[in-house]
């Protein structure tokens, strides 16, 4: 608990008898209540109570001791496993407000819960937990809690786990006696301790079984590895599940009390690698469930085997002479077996990869004698013990001392540049480094060092252009420098000259040439300028026009009005300079040159032609402003036919077939150029003139002949004539004939029809205009054939109707009808006729012919006429069934392949017949009739031929109506063997009376037929002699008693009403009656409510019936 006003104070608590409470406040003000249970059996008095926190942030346990001094003895070995750390004083993290006892101490932790990364436990007092560590510790506690009946505690793994977390309290049980509980809101009581007793016992048992883990068994030991087997603890498989329990293995070397975790995982065979040879190790293990660990096993000691020594370091050079090398080396790791010999090998200076032993012994140095001076030797070293020979060390090379190098050759020049010289020289075997010196005579400083190093070349930078430099070289090794080489002189290249001055025009600019001049450059590049290079750009890029030493040049072959750009550059031994800035020069313009002669485009026409020409070769340096075309006629007259900027024109107003000469010239702002060469063109021929109107020659009503005269050909022979005609005034002319003939015969024309014709002549120039239109009419002819004809037939006659055909120019006078007889039927001006006295169901073929003043026309196509059959005879009627309000009638044999229609009529009031049915069926039910009434019926048949005759009259009568169905009877006053039955009666039907028949059915006895128990006019009856405790069903029907002696008419029975008689118990019956007496019950008077209900129901039924009758009548009339 945390107090904000001051330091926390101990709080009074109630615990179970025999328990003790220890309250501790940490540095964060959190009050911890420790409930101490009574001493367990086997624990001596005064044993300290230890609280272990598994898996805390620092992997160290916290110890709390009671304030009493009798808890100072050593812990019992059953509950505190042995450890390898010394004791320490009371916890250093207790709150200052809590008094500390001088005897407060506790054993250090025997194990810790950690991850796979190794950690070393502290041996001193437990460090205080800071806020972050305590938060992590509490979060781990909350993770390991389980909810059950509102309390939270840590449980070992079970087969059916349902772990939950809680953020309020942590309960960890160690040895089954001590509870460590932190709570910010609630205070534990003795009742909560009692409720968690069973869970604490389970935890204690699980911890004891986790601590019962066998020691690791070392299976096989090698110099750098060891194989061991870890067996799981002996768990009760019926209570706990082993799938989540793992093993943690810790390893320590001899002489070190620090264990490190080397494995954490499932129980299996483990191989430890990367061990040290001939080293003694200690192993211990513990079982682990999540963050909870069991007790550590006793350490298991094993020792790795010996092996060959480690690879030694390479030997180091201690001293050297011209003929010997003194080498020393350090001792190699023995790996459990003392080194007996060192083996030193070298390659004899051959550098071929083959080594020879030069020394073998225990001394860690050796002088190699009898070597050559100035020679490199390679060495390697190996160590040997009783196990074997180690790997050789890394190769190392050393050289013996020698003489100074001889005088080297002078350096040679590789490349010479403007500001640098690349020098190179040869490297001999005795040479190690080189010194290069240079002398610049312009400075007067003599030879100076410019390079010192092992390379065989050097680029001397920052030199002056076109300057001589002197060089000498000296080689050097460990013995000293050589003599200087002979002195050599090398010269840098000269630089390119500078840019000349800008080009300037010298003198007047002409249309085809001009002169330019320039000044030499200020910077000549250290030498004389040899040549100048002039380039000119005429729009297609710069091109060279001059190379020489002069300072001016002439630009020739220019185009007038052109713009030119000129620039200049100079060159010398050091190269070529950049070009100067360009100068732009424009030559003056002149008149344009001679134009190109015009050319004919396309074929020349009779009165016009199309000319086209190109621009002149030169425009004089100024754009062309206009072109002028001149025409010379055949009579040598000249006229200007075009003036403008276009390069083509159309010359009109020419005569067909005449030669013409054409010339063209162009102008610019300076003036007009010369005329072009002449182009001779002959105008084309013209189309012929229009012919005269054609003449018509009538040959028949269907054929005429047209002819026409030859028109003027306009310079070209007429090759064809085109004849067009118009058949109707609202149509266009269409081509009828094309050919060289001047007449044409037209056939298949319509008689007495107007036609229009026109003709035109065609030559090589084209088609001429058409002649004037010639209109004519063909002669009249006999009428056309009748096309549209309609026929209406009966059994004995046929009515023919047709449309009047075309009379072909003469009015139709009459028609001839051919019916197949020898004599034709002639009628006057009419378009219909009725043929009578024909045979029924007979086929006739009829043709019609029109006649006018010219003569008879063609017959029409034969018309097929079929007369109809005679109407069918009426069928006989019979009554299939009779009802009070309907009669079902039937006629015919039920087959109707000819689709004959029937019309049935009824005589209701002896005045006139009404149609009650029309259709192809053979039966019909006539409804809405009166009961016990006779009706007259008749019928006739109808087909395509018409209506047949009526049949004889048939008389059929309806029957009497049965009484209406009654409602289910009501049963009352039910006793053991009797009951009272009542039902609602119906009105008498005219003169006929109504009686009632009551029937009963015993369901319990399995009867299937009703038995009549009453027949009479009453509406109630008392049934006696019933079987006790049986199920019955009763129903009632009304019977019409005919007063005229006809048979009685029974109505339908009502729906059944179920009831059960009472059991034979001493129960007072509803109404006691003599068992053998059956008498009529007196009718009871209805109450006002029952009367109102009956009236309401009656009006409702009446409204429904009236509505239904109205709809039925309306639907029948529709």
TrEMBL record:
It comes from Octopus sinensis. InterPro entries: E3_ligase_FN3/SPRY, FN3_dom, FN3_sf, Ig-like_fold. The keyword Membrane applies. The gene is LOC115222094. PANTHER family: E3 UBIQUITIN-PROTEIN LIGASE TRIM36-RELATED, FIBRONECTIN TYPE III DOMAIN-CONTAINING 3BA-RELATED. It holds the Pfam family fn3. Residues 91-104 have a biased composition (Low complexity). Residues 212-307, 311-406, 407-495, 496-590, 594-686, 690-781, 782-872, 873-962, 965-1064 form the Fibronectin type-III domain. This is Fibronectin type-III domain-containing protein 3A isoform X4.
């Amino acid at each position: 608990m945390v107090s904000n006003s001051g330091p926390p104070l101990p709080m009074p608590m109630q615990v179970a008898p025999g328990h003790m409470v220890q309250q501790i406040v940490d540095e964060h003000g959190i009050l911890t209540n420790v409930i101490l249970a009574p001493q367990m059996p086997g624990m001596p008095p005064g044993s300290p109570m230890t609280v272990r926190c598994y898996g805390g942030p620092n992997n160290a346990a916290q110890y709390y001791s009671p304030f009493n001094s009798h808890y100072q003895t050593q812990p019992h070995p059953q509950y505190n496993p042995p450890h390898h750390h010394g004791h320490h004083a009371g916890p250093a993290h207790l709150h200052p407000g809590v008094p500390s006892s001088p005897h407060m101490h506790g054993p250090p932790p025997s194990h810790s819960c950690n991850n796979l990364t190794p950690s070393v436990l502290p041996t001193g007092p437990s460090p205080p937990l800071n806020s972050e560590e305590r938060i992590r510790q509490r979060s781990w506690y909350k993770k390991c809690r389980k909810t059950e009946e509102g309390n939270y505690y840590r449980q070992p793994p079970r087969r059916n786990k349902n772990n939950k977390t809680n953020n309020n309290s942590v309960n960890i049980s160690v040895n089954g006696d001590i509870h460590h509980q932190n709570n910010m809101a609630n205070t534990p009581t003795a009742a909560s301790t009692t409720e968690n007793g069973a869970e604490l016992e389970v935890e204690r048992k699980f911890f004891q079984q986790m601590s019962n883990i066998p020691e690791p068994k070392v299976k096989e030991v090698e110099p750098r590895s060891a194989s061991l087997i870890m067996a799981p603890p002996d768990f009760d498989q019926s209570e706990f599940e082993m799938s989540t329990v793992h093993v943690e293995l810790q390893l320590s070397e001899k002489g070190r009390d620090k264990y490190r975790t080397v494995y954490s995982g499932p129980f299996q065979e483990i191989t430890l690698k990367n061990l040290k040879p001939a080293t003694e190790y200690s192993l211990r293990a513990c079982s682990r469930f999540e963050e909870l660990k069991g007790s550590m096993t006793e350490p298991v000691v094993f020792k790795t085997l010996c092996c060959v020594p480690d690879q030694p370091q390479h030997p180091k050079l201690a001293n050297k002479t011209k003929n010997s090398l003194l080498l020393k080396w350090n001792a190699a790791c023995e790996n459990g077996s003392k080194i007996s010999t060192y083996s030193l090998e070298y390659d004899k200076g051959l550098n071929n990869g083959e080594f020879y032993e030069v020394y073998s012994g225990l001394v860690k140095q050796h002088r190699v004698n009898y070597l050559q001076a100035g020679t490199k030797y390679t060495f390697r070293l190996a160590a040997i013990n009783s196990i074997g020979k180690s790997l050789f060390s890394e190769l190392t090379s050393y050289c013996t001392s020698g003489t100074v190098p001889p005088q080297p050759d002078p350096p040679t020049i590789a490349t010479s540049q403007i500001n640098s010289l690349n020098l190179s020289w040869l490297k001999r075997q005795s040479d190690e480094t080189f010194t290069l010196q240079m002398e610049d005579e312009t400075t007067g400083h003599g030879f100076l060092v410019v390079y010192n190093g092992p390379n065989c070349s050097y680029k001397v930078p920052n030199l002056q252009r076109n300057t001589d430099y002197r060089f000498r070289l000296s080689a050097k090794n460990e013995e000293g420098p050589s003599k200087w080489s002979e002195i050599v002189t090398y010269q840098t290249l000269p630089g390119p000259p500078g840019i000349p001055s800008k080009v300037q025009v010298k003198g007047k600019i002409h249309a085809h040439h001009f002169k330019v001049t320039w000044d030499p450059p200020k910077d000549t590049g250290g030498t004389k300028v040899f040549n100048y290079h002039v380039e000119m750009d005429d729009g297609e890029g710069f091109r060279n026009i001059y190379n020489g030493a002069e300072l001016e040049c002439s630009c020739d072959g220019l185009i007038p009005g052109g713009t030119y750009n000129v620039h200049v550059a100079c060159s010398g031994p050091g190269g070529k300079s950049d070009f100067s800035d360009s100068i732009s020069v424009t030559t003056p313009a002149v008149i344009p040159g001679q134009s190109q002669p015009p050319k004919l485009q396309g074929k020349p026409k009779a009165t016009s032609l199309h000319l086209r020409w190109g621009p002149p070769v030169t425009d004089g340096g100024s754009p062309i402003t206009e072109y002028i075309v001149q025409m010379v006629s055949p009579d040598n007259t000249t006229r200007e036919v075009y003036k403008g900027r276009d390069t083509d024109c159309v010359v009109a107003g020419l005569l067909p077939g005449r030669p013409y000469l054409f010339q063209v010239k162009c102008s610019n702002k300076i003036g007009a150029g010369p005329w072009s060469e002449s182009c001779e063109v002959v105008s084309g021929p013209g189309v012929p003139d229009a012919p005269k109107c054609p003449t018509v020659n009538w040959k028949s009503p269907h054929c005429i002949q047209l002819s026409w005269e030859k028109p003027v050909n306009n310079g070209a022979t007429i090759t064809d004539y085109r004849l067009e005609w118009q058949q109707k005034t609202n149509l266009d002319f269409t081509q009828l004939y094309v050919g060289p003939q001047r007449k044409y015969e037209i056939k298949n024309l319509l008689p007495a029809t107007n036609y229009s014709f026109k003709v035109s002549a065609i030559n090589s120039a084209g088609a001429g205009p058409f002649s004037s239109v010639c209109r004519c009419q063909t002669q009249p002819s006999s009428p056309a054939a009748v096309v549209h004809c309609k026929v209406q037939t009966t059994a004995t006659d046929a009515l023919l109707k047709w449309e009047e055909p075309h009379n072909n120019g003469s009015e139709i006078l009459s028609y001839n009808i051919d019916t197949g007889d020898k004599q034709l039927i002639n009628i006057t001006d009419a378009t219909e006729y009725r043929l009578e006295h024909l045979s029924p169901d007979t086929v006739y073929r009829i043709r019609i012919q029109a006649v006018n003043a010219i003569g008879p026309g063609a017959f029409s196509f034969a018309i097929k006429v079929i007369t109809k059959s005679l109407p069918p005879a009426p069928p006989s009627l019979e009554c299939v069934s009779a009802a009070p309000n309907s009669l079902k009638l039937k006629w015919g044999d039920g087959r109707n392949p000819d689709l004959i229609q029937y019309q049935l009529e009824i005589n209701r009031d002896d005045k006139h017949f009404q149609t009650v049915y029309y259709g192809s069926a053979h039966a019909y039910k006539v409804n809405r009739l009166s009961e016990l009434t006779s009706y007259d019926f008749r019928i006739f048949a109808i087909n395509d031929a018409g209506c047949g005759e009526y049949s004889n009259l048939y008389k059929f009568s309806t029957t009497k109506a049965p009484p209406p169905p009654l409602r289910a009877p009501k049963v009352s006053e039910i006793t053991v063997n009797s009951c009272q039955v009542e039902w609602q009666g119906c009105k008498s039907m005219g003169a006929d009376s109504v009686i009632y028949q009551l029937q009963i059915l015993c369901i319990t006895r399995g009867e299937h037929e009703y038995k009549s128990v009453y027949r009479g006019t009453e509406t109630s009856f008392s049934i006696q002699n019933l079987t006790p405790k049986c199920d019955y069903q009763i129903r009632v029907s009304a019977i019409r008693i005919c007063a005229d002696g006809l048979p009685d008419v029974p109505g339908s029975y009502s729906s059944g009403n179920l009831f059960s008689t009472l059991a034979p118990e001493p129960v007072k019956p509803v109404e006691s009656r003599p068992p053998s007496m059956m008498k009529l019950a007196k009718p009871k008077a209805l109450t006002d409510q029952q009367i109102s209900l009956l009236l309401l129901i009656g009006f409702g039924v009446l409204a429904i019936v009236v509505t239904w009758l109205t709809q039925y009548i309306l639907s029948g009339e529709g």
